[in-house]
Write a structure and sequence with these properties.
The protein has helices at about 15-20, 25-35, 90-100, and strands at about 1-15, 40-50, 55-60, 65-70, 75-80, 100-110. It is an alpha+beta fold and about 110 residues long. A 6-stranded antiparallel sheet has the order 2-3-4-5-1-6.
Length: about 110
């Protein structure tokens, strides 16, 4: 396989419910973590659900990062897909640490078979 990128999916448990329900705070965490991890930010979209939960997708020069939260369970579903010299595991670890949660990460090899 010609490896072209890294795609990590993550389930974060035991997260801080207040943070998980604050769309602006989660967006700031996502963007800052991507920048520190070496990614180029193209833009992002965010949505606050009622009565709770957020969804954020960050477009990266190297692909994307996303999160969907369930504050009532202290749970977040995330993924970071990158190519180039970006540290997707470091990005996920920074995000889950800021959320106060425990990451459960799976890696998918991306490329041409």
């Amino acid at each position: 396989m010609k490896k072209l990128g890294h795609h990590l999916v993550c389930e974060a448990t035991e997260c801080n419910a207040e943070i998980l329900n604050n769309v602006d705070e989660v967006a700031e965490i996502m963007i800052k973590s991507c920048l520190v991890g070496g990614a180029g930010i193209l833009g992002h979209i965010q949505h606050q659900f009622s009565p709770q939960g957020v969804t954020i997708v960050v477009g990266l020069s190297e692909s994307h990062a996303s999160i969907h939260t369930w504050p009532e369970y202290g749970y977040a579903m995330l993924d970071v897909c990158t190519c180039g010299n970006v540290d997707p595991k470091g990005i996920l670890e920074m995000i889950t640490k800021a959320l106060g949660g425990k990451p459960h990460i799976k890696e998918i090899e991306r490329g041409i078979p």
